[in-house]
Design brief:
about 270 residues; alpha/beta; Rossmann fold; globular
Length: about 270
């Protein structure tokens, strides 16, 4: 689903983390379709190369930078390589992330630590490193952080995941305030469930996915919305709209909403 054509994307180099699958893959394909140059980052060199081959078969251009793991040292080395090789980068889409749904009693703290490393700290490191680069050039630049409605509307069995997304949303809002008045736009994308392989790890039993399947967003629709918004002054993208409405009501009337929506919240 392509929403018109975003002419601001043409010839722009835009980093997409977590580009090998799901939303990230869709965003990369969409950027190339708009004439942009996606810079693909993920851990699977094989899947990234498959994606690059697909983009190039459709007369697109892309760059591939695989990374073994999203550790601080590996990211720093990769960033230095990109800055030296690409010279000018116009945008960053922090999409890499994963979730695991467990009750707090059953939390695996190693998994929680990795969630924070991938979902929060890696995105913060990329944004911090590229911030001076974006601010030194004339013309628009854009940082988009793919967050989650879980950052606004937490539910049972999502303590680790929701906490990581709360953190990333907080970082995004501060980054936006600190760069106000510059040529950099900062956008958070707060999504409900999306039909991707995310649930293979997050919901191993498949119960939650089965319960919410009819409400799931398509990754193609999300990708189209994100790329259409590149280099425009969007503070947030919230999908689906009714979940954002629910999160607003939750902030206003938390006790009432927890009572009314308990059966929905417990679907994990």
């Amino acid at each position: 689903m392509r929403i018109g054509r975003n002419h601001f994307v043409k010839d722009k180099k835009i980093i997409v983390t977590g580009a090998s699958k799901g939303i990230g893959r869709g965003i990369a394909i969409e950027i190339a379709a708009h004439g942009g140059i996606p810079i693909l980052i993920a851990r699977s060199q094989e899947l990234l190369q498959e994606l690059a081959d697909e983009i190039e078969a459709n007369n697109g251009i892309c760059r591939v930078y695989s990374i073994d793991r999203f550790s601080r040292e590996a990211i720093e080395e990769q960033i230095n390589d990109m800055l030296e090789t690409e010279k000018r980068i116009h945008g960053l889409i922090n999409n890499a992330g994963f979730g695991v749904f467990d009750s707090i009693e059953e939390l695996n703290m190693d998994e929680v630590e990795e969630m924070f490393q991938v979902n929060v700290l890696a995105g913060m490191q990329y944004a911090k490193a590229f911030l001076p680069h974006f601010l030194q050039f004339k013309g628009k630049s854009h940082i988009i952080n793919i967050v989650s409605q879980a950052a606004k509307l937490p539910t049972p069995k999502a303590a680790g995941y929701a906490a990581s997304k709360h953190a990333m949303l907080g970082f995004t809002n501060v980054l936006r305030q600190e760069t106000r008045g510059s040529s950099l736009t900062v956008t958070s994308v707060n999504l409900g469930p999306v039909k991707t392989n995310f649930f293979e790890m997050a919901d191993k039993e498949g119960k939650y996915q089965q319960n919410v399947e009819k409400y799931m967003l398509s990754p193609e629709k999300v990708a189209s919305k994100v790329v259409h918004s590149l280099f425009s002054n969007r503070r947030e993208i919230n999908m689906p709209w009714w979940m954002e409405a629910g999160s607003i009501l939750y902030r206003l009337f938390p006790g009432l909403m927890e009572k009314l929506l308990q059966s929905q919240f417990d679907k994990k």
